[in-house]
Task: structure prediction
Amino acid sequence: MSDDSFIREVEEELRSDRMKRIWDRFGPILIGAAILIVIATAGYRGYQYYTDSRASASGDRFLVALNLANDGKPDEALAALEELEGDGYGAYPVLARMRAATVLQEKGDSAGAVAAFDAVAADSSAPAAVRDMAKIRAAYILVDTGSAADVAERAESLSSDENPLRHAAREALGLAAWKEGRLGDAKVLFQQIVDDPSAPRNAQQRAGIMLDLITASGEVSEG
Result:
């Protein structure tokens, strides 16, 4: 056997012995870490499946409630939505509350609808966007059933230039002002909608119609 072959065999033995000592020392730790990774992965997959299943079930129940409302069965729809509010998963409970308020409005219960929307708007656990939309929905109902002050209480804070719901808020405020005969205030609000390039086209069209009505009345006054 050559010296080089002997040296290689010795080095291989040393490496083998070193690896054995390393494995004896760290092998159980590595095995434990591998087991933990497998368990964690399985747990995550299981939780993901669980949450997806709950969300899917809540979505199916929400769709059933919508179909009941669309089929002219408001009482059954309200019962289904109320149940979903109590034990639904994810965003569905708050969506159920919003839809239930709409069903109340469709039934002619304007006061109940406003109260329901107000409850969502006051719920700090609901997403901010949903709370703001609830304020707008209540404001629109109150254009017909309440006072301009009632409308302003819900919509005024949403009418600033940076708010994404400003067009709807200004329309509700403008309609309320027009209803009370404050045509100057109404004109300013509708003009803001018309002049805003980011306003939806249908909102601009409605605002333009209201401006034409105010102009045609010949009774524009500030106040």
Notes: The radius of gyration is 32 Å. Residues 184 and 221 are 5 Å apart (CA to CA). The chain has nine helices and no strands. The longest helix spans residues 3-70.
